[in-house]
Amino acid sequence: MIRQELDKLALPAEPGVYFWRDADGVILYIGKATSLRDRVRSYFAPDIIKTRGAHIVDMVFKAVTVTYETTPTVLEALILEANLIKKYKPYYNTKEKDDKSFNSVVITKEDYPRIILVRQKDLDVRNKTVTLPRLGLVNTKYDAVFGPYPNGPAIREALKIIRRIFPFRDRASAQKDKEVFYRQIALAPDVSNNEAAKQYRQNVGRIKMILQGKMQSLIKGLKKEMVVAAKEEKFEEAEVLKQKVFALEHIQDVSLIKRDLERPSVDNVFRLEAYDIAHLSGKQMVGVMTVIENSTPNKNEYRKFIIRGFDTANDAGALREVLVRRLAHTEWAYPSAIVVDGNTIQSNVAQAVLKELQLDIPVIAVTKDERHRPKAITGPQELIESQKFAILLANSEAHRFAITFHKDRRKKSMF
Predict the structure, then answer these.
(1) Is the pLDDT at 70 greater than 90, yes or no?
(2) Is the pLDDT reported for residue 84 higher than 80?
(3) Are 108 and 128 spatial neighbours (Cβ–Cβ below 8 Å)?
(4) Please, which contacts does 51-60 make with residues 24 or more away whose CB atoms are closer than 8 Å?
(5) Beta carbons within 10 angstroms of residue 180's beta carbon
(6) Quick one: which of 350, 407, 343 has its CA closest to 374?
(7) Structural contact between residues 215 and 208, judged by C-beta atoms closer than 8 angstroms
(8) Which of 362, 368, 369, 351 is closest to 386 using CA atoms?
(9) pLDDT (average), residues 254-281
(10) Is residue 264 assigned to a domain?
(11) Do 286 and 406 contact (CB within 8 A), yes or no?
């Protein structure tokens, strides 16, 4: 297929799934897109053999047309792509790949099901069990399995988004010493009583609908439940349902931005969040978050935190508190990278919080000298080299903002 033929197709700039077909209409390859028009055009880029491989160049040469199916959100495009690849098994989707290494989403068959991501090779489809000792799974029965998903990072991101709307149990949040923490940050369900357990089972069913590609049916059902609850004057329940409907209808707007599922683009916003703690011998302890987007401060996104968990100096503990509270705000865009003021201690604190929340966000630490001037930057070197100016700006802004906030708190405490 040549570029001139593609231009005649008038592909829309909407999310969806596209199908490369040969002269007989046979599907050669299925892919997903944030923008169908931009994604399909990318196959004619000069560096296509470098970015996608020789087999994809061969596929484009053999194809004669592209058809497509739009979806309301990128999340639905991701799920539809996996379901269609499983159904049609296009040659170029599986060529040179071992689908046993692909990821699948498993819902365990337990009183309080866990939802986990495992490799296809770890599934015993005949006996409907999953074995993965490092997750504590040995011949564990499962209730449902979805996938396989060729794009591991994409399905991980999708599960994070789903979890913010319908909290679920996974390996970490099922541990007794962590379940309360995950409930507090709204990433795990309350299963402390029969009614809560019933609600969780209902939400697991809703998650299944999303993974089955029935998002619009789910939204329609939730709206009906919301109306019924309001008529029965169960206003709190109706409000919760309303919030979930809104979240599902606005997934693409608030969470699944282009950089989550597509190759990096110059149009993407690179968001740095920097954190700092300020206090006077542990008194009036505060924390702040500053935001630098594409090397420019976004002061509308700056946030202040009054430290609640400590009344004596504990910079590491205060940083942990700030990060946990901030990351619980899933309605805020997550950062491309986090900058902390300090050394290995602060960096380790941030990385520990991110690991607990299963968030893959790089951490950069800016270490200062006795005059509070940057003397070292540690973290991913490639990121530091490309974003050094923005990192130092973010760190400087965080220090300034923290000191100003702390002084304001001290002044108010005098009156």
Answers:
(1) yes
(2) yes
(3) no
(4) 51/263, 53/96, 55/92, 55/95, 55/96, 56/29, 56/92, 58/92, 59/20, 59/28, 59/29, 59/92, 60/1, 60/20
(5) 11
(6) 343
(7) no
(8) 362
(9) 62
(10) no
(11) yes
Task: Tell me if the pTM is above 0.70.
Answer: no
DSSP conformational letter for 150: S
Cα 198 to the center of its chain, rounded Å? 27
Residue 262 counted as domain residue: no
Question: Residue 377, Cα to own-chain centre: how many angstroms?
Answer: 26
Whether the per-residue pLDDT at 202 is higher than 80: the answer is yes
Give the end of a domain, one of 227, 256, 285. Answer: 256
Distance of alpha carbon 93 from alpha carbon 178, whole angstroms: 39
C-beta of residue 103 within 8 angstroms of C-beta of residue 149: yes
With a cut of 70, say whether residue 258 has pLDDT above it: no
Within a domain: residue 266?
no
**pLDDT at 263 > cutoff 60:** no
- Domain carrying residue 285: 271-413
Average the pLDDT over 390-402 and give the result: 92
- Give CA–CA dist 5/11, Å, rounded: 12
Domain count along the chain: 4
- pLDDT confidence tier of residue 127, bands split at 50, 70 and 90: very high
Give the chain's length.
Answer: 415
Which residue, of 206, 222, 238, is where some domain finishes? 206
Is position 300 within any domain?
A: yes
First to last CA, the chain: 75
> What does the alpha-carbon distance between residue 141 and residue 103 come to, in Å, rounded to a whole number?
18
Q: Quick one: what percent of the chain has pLDDT higher than 90?
A: 44
Say if residue 179 is in the same domain as residue 111: yes
Taking 3-state DSSP, the helix, strand and coil percentages for the chain, each rounded to the nearest 5, stand at: 45, 25, 30
Residues 75 and 185 in one domain: no
* Residue 259 burial (10 A CB sphere; 0-12, 13-18, 19+): middle
pLDDT classification of 300: cutoffs 50, 70, 90: confident
The answer to whether 194 and 146 are in contact (CB under 8 A) is: no
Distance in angstroms (rounded) separating the CA atoms of residues 24 and 100: 30
